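Example record

One chain of 326 residues, shown exactly as stored in the release files.
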Amino acid sequence: MPEFDEVKVKKQAIPQFPKKRVFTALIIILVLIFFVTGLYTIDPEEVGVIQRFGKYTSTTTPGLHFKIPFGVDNLTKVKVTNVYKEEFGFRTVQPGIKSRYSNRDFSSESLMLTGDLNIADLEWIVQYRVKDPVKYLFNVRNMEKTIRDGSEATIREIVGDRSVDEVIVLSRKEINDLAQIKLQSLLDGYETGVEIVTINLQNVNPPDKVKPAFDNVNSSKQEKERIVNEAWEQYNKVIPEARGKAKQTIQEAEGYAVNRVNRAQGEADRFNQIYQEYKLSKSVTRKRLYIETMEEIIPTIDKLFIVDDKLEGLLPLLNLTGEVSK
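Predicted structure tokens for this chain:
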């Protein structure tokens, strides 16, 4: 057994730290932990939501901030500028220039009954962002499922009010806009704090089993439209030309009628003037008319025979040349 003095010497060899230094070091460590765990940074695309003992207290903007550590204040960062996307009827496995898509069957969410009792296969995208981070965090338990269920219900309601032709071809832009308005109204009613940026129908097709028949119908409709367009083109080419010719003929006829009336009026006026002169001097007027008439007739005669009206027993000459005398 070691002696008592030896044990006492060994006990005195253990270094003893001053209590004051230990207390100071402990305080320094606690202060460092306090500031390290209390300071936090919010990025430009985020806001910070502070909860004190689980109750919401404040929302902090981008920058450096301080919160009470040791679990008193809890921080949740929410990205308010990011645009999130939900896909329906398909899933993108690898996005990019050459995107790859999942081979799974999503017909349970893509097949829909149209208003004319046909079936359409729809693929669409919903893009949204957070506009109120407090409502986004605390009002709805599962935001993603809420958006997906609301979007599917909205699209099915709109598609059920339209024919398959309207859904596939005619009214896609109208369906996009109406679906965005209805879904936004639904989410606002739930106070989700989400803003719908856009809803876009990607592919809208008939089911694979009826696609050949649908393609035949579409090709027939396109052929019908082509024939109708060609008929309208021919109509627009022929009808204006016929109308122009008819208008030209009418104008020519009206011009001819005016010309004939004017000429007849002029001849009647000339006759009246000659008649007035004739009444004043009958013999002179008669001779003048005779001379004027001869001036018009004589230049057109090939052979001219002047016979005295008092001559008797004139023998007509036989025409042996075959020419007809005038």
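Notes: The chain has nine helices and eleven strands.
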